[in-house]
Amino acid sequence: MHxxxxxxxxxxxxxxxxxxxxxxxxxxxxxxxxxxxxxxxDFTVLLEPEKPWRRYIRPSVHIGGDFWLPDAAPxxxxxxxxxAEMGMNLQMALGWRRHLLxxxxxxxxxxxxxxxxxLSGSGKSTLSAxxxxxxxxxMGDEFALLGLDSGEITAFPRLISLKNQSIEAMQKVAxxxxxxxxxxxxxxxxxxxxxxxxxxxxxxxxxxxxxxxLFPRFGHAPELRDMGxxxxxxxxxxxxxxxxxxxxxxxxxxxxxxxxxxTKAMDYQSAEQAEELIDGLWSRLx
Amino acid sequence: xxxxxxxVNALREPASVEALNGRQWTxxxxxxxxxxxxGSLAHRLKPVxxxxxxxxxxxxxxxxxxxxxxxxxxxxxxxRRALADYPGKIVLMKGTAYVAGNRAAGVGRSIGxxxxxxxxxxxxxxxxxxxxxxxxxxxxxxxxxxxxxxxMHELPPLIHRERDRMIDVHHTILPxxxxxxxxxxxxxxxxxxxxxxxxxxxxxxxxxxSIAHLFxxxxxxxxxxxxxxxxxxxxxxxxxxxxxWNELGARAKVHGLGDELARALRLAASLYGxxxxxxxxxxxxxxxxxxxxxxxxxxxxxxETRKFTRFAFYVRSxxxxxxxxxxxxxxxxxxxxxxxxxx
Lengths: 286, 343
Known about the structure:
heterodimer, A: alpha+beta, 8-stranded mixed beta sheet, 5-stranded mixed beta sheet, globular, B: alpha/beta, 7-stranded mixed beta sheet, 16 helices, 7 strands
């Protein structure tokens, strides 16, 4: 088995693979990230052939590890990098319990965090990547880690996973050397990974106090709407992968978050519109 | 070492982990997670000095299992309320019983389904009450359903439609087709009542059920954990009362589990250093090394190894459960249906 260890935010991973290729790609894209101290990690991700002969013949990558799902579909070796990223997400989603995990993107300015959550396609990932090129610090586009006692957001700035049209949009604003290989026709469409800006990696151990929560929705005329607290709460429980697993600690952290963080639903049709709406809200924060 | 020995060593001798390096810790954690023993390990390593990064992982495991314990007790209480009108004894089994009875084996133990045992003649009443209270059948296949009812020691599994939790309702501790025929009436007769009105098996029966579950009813999947349960139960019951060995031997005769008891004692002593009664353990031990080979069949990434040994024990598990003609008919039916042979 080939192997590599990575530290992303507070979590350390060992990724072991029957093939060298996905790990070489990871090594290149994560070269500026720190190495886990002492070589002990929180989770192991396993990339193995689905069947022994599928190591060589039409290689097919099964995603496993310490935590796994029985029905995870295998990916072709050309999408091995995606398999590794999905494997790390899976370990976090099923195994991490030092924070409440929200399926959300987050960016930071002046020590304060903007958290964006919503369904797939809402644009939360692209918006965070865009804002990261315009003066905000990127904290993550998959999970926002909410501290159970501190109430702060801890960064989890893994590679930004760009899908379909957002690949082209980001290629206009980010330098070419930060992009990973393009993977066509994956189960999630076309995917290309983007290495976060250097300051996102350098400052990944600095948490931020959540100051604004947005539920963005792409494709509608620009508008901001209020939401009821109970609706926010229920939508966040659905956006959390470990809310139930944390029991009372998760409930306390989430109720406090909903109580304290101003929240809006935001419709937008372009990054410029979104940025304008966000800047307006941000300038009026207490 | 390329097997699960590091986990056994850490459970047996917690202080030994102080010599581990980072990579060895990572192996140990992956093995313990794969064997569902991470919670037990975390509790066992509480008094030992470990690196901070490892302590965080172990603390996660302790908290995850605290919640699992609470959920298991809650699920048992839901069953108690659903069966409030049932006058017979409801006996908790396995993990839930260890937790409800405050046994050392319950500390940090992972618990999945709720297992209960009731009198066989009362199965229709119990089944109806559970269906009434929101449990539903998991296996809609009529062949599977009939197979359970005719030949197994339990009803087909039920799942609660709102809580998504499974319950297995047993009427004895081994399939009806297996060689040994444990005395279910004797188990119910001597079961011990808890404060809330539920029951757990008397100590000797609790040990023997765990042993039957490990050796006579499966392919040894999860075997290290089951043997760790047995280690705890033996230390607890025998440490308090040396007479317990006599009782255990006598009770094993009642249930026809003398050979299984002897093997369990030898393996627990060999792997976990459990102090055991030599008179009960001392029999032919030629096959023990194959059992140990199977129990330790896992590498440092938590992967299953020794495919051939695993397969041999899989075949053996079916062989033990069914007479040859019945096994052939069962596998034929399963094959025609296009499914894998299942337990």
